[in-house]
Design a protein that fits this description.
With 252 residues, the protein is α/β, with parallel strands linked by helices. It has a single domain, classed as Vaccinia Virus protein VP39 (Rossmann fold), CATH 3.40.50. The protein is 29% helix and 21% strand. It has 8 helices and 8 strands, in the order αααβαβαββαβαββαβ. It has helices at residues 2-10, 23-26, 41-51, 68-75, 88-100, 146-158, 189-200, 236-239, and strands at residues 58-62, 80-84, 105-108, 123-129, 164-170, 204-215, 218-223, 243-248. It has an 8-stranded mixed β-sheet with strand order 3-2-1-4-5-8-6-7. Helix 6 (146-158) crosses helix 7.
């Protein structure tokens, strides 16, 4: 089984080796998988655990890749986790890995279109990490124009407002991950915060915003303040992406 998991984990796609291994799988696959380039998964999860309780919660992980946040949610006490992942190898990896360690993670292999109903709804927490800026690429109309794509991204956020109590959102500054296709003219955190705020003002309350900072070589996500809102090119694009924790006004 371990050999099969290793092969599934390494299956080639543009999002392969995108996540580090979660705590629950480190011993199972220890020494078998080269560490991926960190996208600060542990640091992002640390921020979530400071502001959210996963204990006895029902969690949905959208575009969950190889399941880091799904397994970490289980580790943090969630009693049910559902993962939606469009890449078959990644979805199969999560399903078989969960079976190997006897943890219940329900997996579905499809790209969410943010229009039709979602399995096992409603949820307590939905994790939407770095998915919606791939609209027109991984999912949706591939011929869509930028301004219409941004409108559809706002609709994608609001799609969850009657399906979950809490939405955790992170998105990129570059449409489809293309550095030549900026979603915001100046590529600033303030522009993204305004974009999300305008999109969500009727259906969500922004509970908190996490901003990546580096001190002595260590990355930590802190709450938004007048200093860390400034764009920091030394951190790179990924760590400049804010983490939004949104609480639904429609689902009490």
């Amino acid at each position: 089984m371990n050999d099969e998991l290793i092969e599934l984990y390494k299956k080639t796609s543009k999002h392969s080796n995108y996540q580090v291994l979660p705590t629950l799988l480190k011993n199972v696959l220890k020494g078998s998988i080269e560490p991926s380039i960190s996208r600060y998964e542990n640091e992002r999860m640390d921020f979530l655990k400071k502001h959210l309780s996963f204990k006895n919660k029902k969690v949905l992980d959208v575009g969950g890749n190889t399941g880091f946040f799904s397994f970490e949610a289980i580790e943090a006490g969630a009693n049910q986790v559902t993962l939606i992942e469009g890449n078959l190898a990644h979805e199969t990896f999560v399903k078989k890995a969960a079976q190997t360690i006897n943890k219940k993670i329900i997996t579905h292999n499809f790209y969410l279109d943010f229009k039709t109903s979602i399995p096992e709804e409603p949820y307590d927490i939905v994790l939407l990490f770095n998915v919606i800026h791939h609209l027109g690429d991984d999912f949706g109309d591939k011929n869509i124009a930028l301004e219409q794509a941004k409108y559809e991204m706002q609709n994608a956020i609001n799609f969850f407002s009657d399906k979950t109590d809490v939405l955790v959102l992170q998105m990129g500054f570059c449409w489809k991950g293309d550095r030549d296709l900026l979603l915001f003219e100046n590529g600033t955190k303030q522009e993204m915060i305004d974009f999300v705020g305008n999109a969500t003002k009727d259906k969500w309350e922004i509970q908190t915003i996490g901003i990546g900072e580096e001190t002595d070589g260590k990355t930590i996500f802190h709450e938004l303040n007048h200093e860390n809102i400034k764009r920091s090119d030394s951190l790179g694009e990924f760590r400049n992406r804010p983490i939004f924790i949104l609480r639904s006004n429609l689902k009490a």
